[in-house]
Specification:
The structure holds 2 protein chains of 2 kinds. Chain A contains 13 helices and 9 strands. Chain A is α+β, with helices and mostly antiparallel strands. Chain B is mainly α. Chain B has a domain of 80 residues. Chain B is built from 7 helices and no strands. In chain B, helix 3 packs antiparallel against helix 5 and helix 3 crosses helix 6. The interface between A and B is large, with 53 and 35 residues.
């Protein structure tokens, strides 16, 4: 009887044990592939306190911007602090004409970028929350069965780190991670707002042409995202492509007729082309809708400016 | 005299019209709303809620006094909070849950308050955490 019971129990225990095993595999739920490895990421050995520049150089090199850690050290490494500040790293990426996109602080978000062949720069804390030991590294792959992530750098060219250890150290650094995107390249991350924010930051550094390609790509992925069209329109205007900008502003208003900034900018664009009637027509609904909310002052100013321009110019032509 | 003034006016008017027709560098003009301004205005409801929470805490007299005693300008702290990415801001706002509600701080509340101060100092780069390093 006991033997039979044990025989019946055994498979159950085995299943329990296996079950325990699979829940221990931390990558299991998040990883879509058995393994992933990015081969094109250049490797740099780290000198004292230079993991920041080395990791950055790996990321930039993989995105087609070959640069040495020494060059980057001048940009992100403050000797007195013996480390690199996160914000400086993002700025350094933008200075090299790439979009620096901070990822959602989750494991699936990180692994999805890896699966698309994009290395991810992460911050790790090997110390305690109260006594941190910071380290920057680049995740270049994972092995689902072995439950490990592959990091570029460390002592060898590549370092295997148990997922548990990686998630612990990454978690104590707030799960901070970012990718570098070439102009026009879109991330695995499907949220429009963070990407547009990241591209706007690149544009703010004067990298208008690079930003243009990314805005174009964003309008293709999210054709009903008004902010994507608005950003593209402003960008085209800054590049002197007035006709294209006008089309893009109209696209904003097609997907979101109450987009006040687009009405404002379109009206000014039309007015300066001499199309006072069209400008007035574009701005009139915004005047009412702005009330005393955001952009009310800008819209009131634009209204006055357009009325002051006076008569319709003969050069005004409908597009 | 009147004739000359009218002529000058006419010339200025024609020049202005020509400028208008030729097109200004529009982006440089005042009145154009920038992409960043549109992004800021669009801020997610969660972000706005978090920011309000942080700002409300920073506006409290006891918090201001404590920050000032530590050499941190509360206005700078608020400005810095407004520029934080969504996730960091959410973390900061969440940390504020541990801040004591009033003046008479018990031991637990005191611990929470110290936590807030450390968190703020960290974010403000006053006490920088990047002084240690691990290879």
């Amino acid at each position: 009887m006991i033997g039979a019971a044990a025989r019946n129990l055994a498979p159950g225990l085995l299943l329990l044990a296996l079950g325990g095993c699979s829940t221990d595999r931390l990558l299991e739920a998040a990883a879509a592939q058995p393994r992933a490895e990015i081969s094109g990421a250049p490797y740099f050995s780290e000198r004292d306190h230079q993991c920041g520049p080395a990791a950055l150089a790996t990321l930039l090199g993989a995105a087609g911007q070959p640069v040495t850690p020494d060059t980057l050290a001048h940009e992100v490494f403050i000797p007195g602090r013996k480390g690199s500040v996160q914000a400086e790293m993002l700025v350094a990426v933008r200075r090299h004409s790439l979009v620096a996109l901070t990822l959602a602080p989750t494991l699936p978000a990180l692994l999805k970028e890896i699966e698309q062949g994009r290395p991810v720069l992460v911050l790790q804390n090997f110390g305690l929350p109260a006594l941190p030991l910071w380290h920057y590294a680049v995740v270049v792959g994972y092995e689902r069965e072995r439950d490990t992530v592959l990091l570029s750098g460390g002592r060898g060219r590549q370092q295997r780190l148990a997922a548990r250890r990686f998630l612990g150290t990454w978690g104590r650094a707030g799960n901070w991670a970012f990718v570098a995107l070439r102009p026009g390249e879109l991330p695995a991350d499907m949220r429009a707002a963070p990407l547009l924010d990241a591209v706007a930051a690149l544009e703010a550094l004067g990298q208008r042409a690079s930003a243009a390609a990314s805005y174009q790509a964003a309008t293709r992925r999210w054709p009903s995202e008004s902010l994507a069209w608005f950003a593209l329109a402003n960008n085209q205007l800054a590049l002197g492509e007035t006709a294209a900008a006008e089309t893009a502003y109209r696209e904003v208003l097609r997907v979101q007729p109450d987009h006040l900034p687009a009405r404002n900018n379109l009206a000014l664009l039309l007015a300066h082309r001499g199309c006072i009637a069209a400008a007035t027509e574009a701005l009139a609904p915004a005047r009412v809708a702005a009330d005393d909310g955001p952009f009310a002052a800008e819209i009131a100013d634009s209204w006055r400016e357009i009325q002051a321009l006076g008569a319709e110019a003969p050069t005004c032509q409908a597009h | 005299m009147g004739m000359r003034l009218a002529m000058v006016r006419g010339i200025i008017g024609v020049s202005l019209a020509a400028l208008v027709a030729a097109g200004f560098p529009l982006s440089a003009r005042a009145g154009m709303i920038t992409t960043q301004a549109a992004i800021d205005a669009q801020g997610s409801p969660q972000r706005l809620a978090d920011l309000n929470r942080v700002e409300a805490t920073l506006a409290r007299a006891d918090v201001r006094a404590r920050l000032q005693a530590l050499g941190v300008n509360p206005t700078d702290a608020a400005a810095r909070a407004a520029t934080l990415p969504d996730t960091d801001l959410a973390r900061l706002a969440k940390g504020l849950d541990n801040v004591p509600a009033g003046g008479d701080a018990g031991l637990l509340e005191l611990v929470g308050f110290v936590f807030l101060v450390l968190l703020l100092l960290d974010y403000l780069d006053v006490v920088h955490v990047f002084t240690h390093h691990k290879h």
